[in-house]
Amino acid sequence: MNSLSETVISNIKKALKENNMSQAELGRRIHAARSTVTHWLDGTNGIRQDKLEEIAKVLHRDISWFFIDENEKHIKQQKLNHNQILLAMSLDSDATKEEVDEAIRYVKYMHAKRLESNEHTGEN
């Protein structure tokens, strides 16, 4: 399975292709330099939450879509709410990439458990 950052990068590239959009055009639409987009998509730099939210909007995707590995897309897509995304991405500034990835995986896990519980109890 890919690392979470590889999954996000892969899904952004896929959405760009599906939308017939270049990296340069994405950069223009989200007010980021083409070189910045290139660095995000080659894994050199991380993508800030606010920019990922803009990318999701421009590419007509729910932000949670970017976090789901292609091999897991057959599983019911989990939609993270805004608070869950903020929680996962608002670790202190010296958090390692691995810690951020683990926090996001944990939020997704907890969300899936709640959905599973709701399905069993018939709640929404």
Features:
mainly alpha; globular; 6 helices; 124 residues
Summarize the structure.
This protein has 124 residues and is mainly alpha-helical. The protein has helices at residues 4-18, 23-30, 34-41, 49-58, 82-89, 97-121. 60% of the residues lie in helices and 0% in strands.
Characterization of the model:
The chain is mainly α. The protein has 6 helices and no strands. The protein has helices at residues 4-18, 23-30, 34-41, 49-58, 82-89, 97-121.
- Please count the beta strands (DSSP E, at least 2 residues each): 0
Radius of gyration: 15 Å
Our count of helices gives 6
Order of helices and strands: HHHHHH
Regions with little confidence, pLDDT below 50 for 5+ residues: none
The separation of the N and C termini measures 31 Å
Largest sheet: none
Give the helix proportion (percent range).
55-70%
Whole-number mean pLDDT: 78
**What overall form do the CA principal axes indicate?**
globular
Structural classification: mainly alpha
Strand content: under 5%
Please render the helix and strand layout as text.
Layout (H helix, E strand, L loop, with lengths): L3 H15 L4 H8 L3 H8 L7 H10 L23 H8 L7 H25 L3
Helix pairs in contact: 2-3, 5-6
